[in-house]
Amino acid sequence: MSRRIRGKGSYIRGELVFTTIDTLAPITLPAVANFHCEYSRIKTIFVSTEQLLTLTYGETHLALWPGLEPEIFNTISIECEFLRFGLFASGKYIEQYGVPKSIKDFKDHYFVCHNDQSKSHLRKWEQENIPSSRIALAAGTPSILHEGVLNGIGIGFVDLVVSKRHPSLVDVLAPKKDRWEVPLRLIIHEDVYNSDKIQAFLKMVEMTLNFWPATI
Q1: Element (H, E) at 112
Q2: What is the SS3 assignment for 208?
Q3: Residue 168 gets which letter from DSSP?
Q4: CA–CA distance from 176 to each of 85, 103, 179, 215 (Å)?
Q5: What is the pLDDT of residues 94-108, one digit of tens each?
Q6: DSSP assignment of 129-164, as one string?
């Protein structure tokens, strides 16, 4: 993904603006920490947002973004990993409503789902399998959906990185390979891709993501 940089930490300096969604913080902040240890003269500005910032006008230097490759002019997109999801319920919810044994039991349960404006590919699966009358909470922000599940409002999708941090969550349905995976892409404007600063950060992200699958 990136070239090896040796002996350049002393003069690489300035700011690096990095964008991703808030739920990816557990896997991206270790890369930021490693980056700071090696290149202490760079200030990393971490922007958590649900909308990809404009790389063309310099709003961000690079982004780690889930989903299909965006159509952004003059950018380089590198598919580097997958964001994996499971269908989870909290202990509080299970105590009150139990666990569905199959999709046929969904009619007797409540769910936390993506709203109609959501661009998540998981929304299609929800529409095909979850009765609309059983949706207790709909939202377009991953953190709100996760909190809805954690607070027992209903069963819903939670990414496996988040689920490992909350042992009270119970996986209620086996994951559907491919359908419950979202590709993660590093997106960089081509004008800054070859800069020492960007290549150094890409190296750290690559090293972090290489260990990520073993943690989930």
Answers
A1: strand 111-114
A2: helix
A3: T
A4: 9, 13, 6, 19
A5: 999 999 999 999 999
A6: HS-GGGEEEEES-HHHHHHHHHTTS-EEEEEHHHHT
